[in-house]
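REQUEST FORM: STRUCTURE PREDICTION
Request ID: SP-0412
Submitted by: Lab K.M.
Chain count: 1
Length (residues): 445
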Amino acid sequence: MSKPNKTVASSTTTADLKDDRKIKATNNNECENSTSVELTRPGQQIRPAISCEVAVGLVERLYGLKVLSVSELNSYYDHNFLVKIDPQSKGNPFVKDIWPHGYVLKVLNSMDTREDRIDAVHAVQRILGAKGFNCPQPILNIKGQDKSIEDIVYDLPIESDDKKSTAEFQESDAIRQGRHVVRLFIFVPGRLLVEVPYTPQLLLSLGRYICSLQKAIEGFSHPAMEQFQNIWSLDSVPQLLGFTSAIGDHEKRRLIEDIVESYMKEVVPKKNRFQKGVIHGDFNEQNILVRKASLSEGDDSTASSQPRPQDAFGDQSEHEVCGILDFGDTAFSFYLYDVAILIMYAMLDSKVVDFLDVGGYVLAGYMSVDDRTLNEAEFEALKVCVASRYAQSLTMGAYTHSLNPTNEYLLMSSKNGWTQLKTFWTTPKDQLYDRWRIIIDANRQ
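STATUS: Completed
RESULT:
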């Protein structure tokens, strides 16, 4: 393991930055004050608390590239920045041409800072890139390495709470240091899935894409992939009970507990019959890129006397999946989990298709790739797995937001999630599956 470097991340302002650097912060947070932390279990702080100024310094020192602008990107546990580079930068011998769309600086959380784990993830990304999948590829730093381990020193924010003891204030005021993997990726341009209407054709495309991706990395193995598990792994659903205290509503809390109980009874005993391989682990609406689709006559399921749905900009084009981001949860696990996660997030923002029908279209697309299918045990467990992902997203969103109330990104799932989950969970499984089977049969080629 290479010796980490040390970077001091203090609570400085953009006034210290050069005039030609324009800072654009997301989520109404000032980028220079980005010192919030996240947790994977109660009391554990893992998110790197660094400012935009420090991000600029990391890029220029480690990668030899002159930064023109920097903006913070959404994330749960890592700290990500979009950086634009001066086209005349010549400080990195491994970067021949500056990518005009920019780069993503990713400062990994302290829990996932394992070199073997990073090597495994990069291997998956390179395999997919070589097979034509549009996904982020790591950039080599000035030492010819695709990652750097940095000791980053930062100040934790002090919360104003009269009930805190003097010892607690002293602890929160102390300088903390975290060891983090720092990487730079080419920014992959494209529209996010969440920005376009979820038509039947797009949902079919989602199912086909996830299956094609799984097949593209079929047979890949790495010890770090097999050992990886975090709070977002569906295998970790029972751990949610340690976070439900953040859910103030008793009925909602009981719903989560009911889902966890069903997971233990209906999913865990069937795991030995689930198909396994390398999965992406986080097919959500912020990680999937889409483009306008070219559909031949007769392929457009939305063609009728009804007007085609349009996005917020009035675009009525049909779309298809063209890229995938964020491999932080990639692991050797059950293919079923990828399918369940995708269905849940596609349901969350479905406005064209009844959200209870989304699973049918995703499965129809998934099963259309080389006759891929779910076996009986997987199909029987699918509803609980979908509900379990709702439970994870809603519970962890509430918990992390209680610690970082200015980050509205953490509550994105809750806008529709609780209402949808209650309806989904109370819909009899036979009725739900009958709806899905009708859609699957109607889309068989």
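NOTES: Residues 1-39, 155-175, 296-306 have pLDDT under 50 and may be disordered.
Reviewed by: T.R.
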